Known about the structure:
- By secondary structure, this protein is α+β, with helices and mostly antiparallel strands.
- Helix content is 17%, strand content 46%.
- The chain contains one helix and four strands, in the order E-E-H-E-E.
- It has a four-stranded antiparallel sheet with strand order 1-2-4-3, with helices on one face.
Amino acid sequence: AWISINIEVNTHELNIWIENSISAYIGEKDQVGGVGINNVKERLNSLYANRHQLLIEQQNAKYSIHLNLVL
């Protein structure tokens, strides 16, 4: 397993890129969970309305996230 985190800050923007590997093990999903991304989206809309972009992708064997915040 691996994870890569890159952060870039300038006068007007914060950019965060996160990538991590997807496990080859596929276990059973429990009934709890799955609300984390929705909570993050709600908080971003509340705190950075019209000043953020969140992109989440699953590609091959990795998850990729890019968050851009206008400061």
